Amino acid sequence: xxxxxxxRERVATQSIRQVSSQAERRARGTSQWPGKQPRHHRAIFVxxxxxxxxxxxxxxxxxxxxxxSCETLFLVGDIVDGWRLKRRWYWPASHHRVLQEVLAKxxxxxxxxxxxGNHDEAFRHYCERSIAGVEIAHEAAYETADGKxxxxxxxxxxxxxxxxxxxxxxxxxxxxxxxxxxxxxxxAMRRSLGLPYWSLSAYxxxxxxxxxxxxxxxxxxxxxxARLRGYDGVVCGHIHHATIEHIDGILYVNDGDWVESCxxxxxxxxxxxxxxxxxxxxxxxxxxxxxxxxxELVTASA
Length: 302
Fold this sequence. Notes:
- This protein is of the alpha/beta class.
- The protein has a single domain (42-298), classed as 4-Layer Sandwich (Purple Acid Phosphatase, chain A, domain 2).
- Helix content is 39%, strand content 24%.
- The protein has an 8-stranded mixed β-sheet with strand order 4-5-3-2-1-11-12-13, with helices on one face. The chain has a 5-stranded mixed β-sheet with strand order 6-7-8-10-9, with helices on one face.
- Helix 1 crosses helix 4 (93-107) and helix 2 (58-67) runs parallel beside helix 4 (93-107).
């Protein structure tokens, strides 16, 4: 290993220890949101946060993690955007706080499972290991409270573009970053007018016929994989399209993302799965924002 690589590993290890120590103090301390008791879930599934990019809604994500506790937290890939960080370093305090909130859950006794995706594929070298109490795995099996066996994976290996032309995926990532920059401009204008968050990039994606067909094909292929492997359902990310639906008798769950829709999937004590859309309205400098969430409640046995 080169001296540069050794230095980077030491810095990363020290950073993880520092964040872990801060998170432990956070877990022992009082809530950052006085007067608001965290909503408890049996499990939370989050993916495609893309920490390390300007498009990541880190403040909303940290707020969500602080206000929602769980027994098991699944980080379903593309948590850190290594592709973008290689080109340009970007790591503000809000992204650091997300890591603190994740590790605070570890110190509070929750099981945290990290399943790397394509943007954080470097962490796949650490699969079957545990770092700061976080389990790292290629995929996971999870049983809901009502007995449904779910396969949990990121989903990038079912993406034909990544499998056949990775350079095209990087080109698409660049174009997507441009769309997210436009999204930020649109969001700033809407906030100045007192309007709620709305994703321009998500709107454009759902209006393009090829994108809609791609999403449909991806969902079918992933559901087929779960069925062939004997699972009742599958939880994935990758395509930034949150949904809970049945495909050929298989429960297909996608937990969305935190660059456009700000969504997560949660399970309650009875095994019901729900999509939470976390958005901030009326944000003011120096004020604690009010979070408004809406959920689509879906019963896994339906």
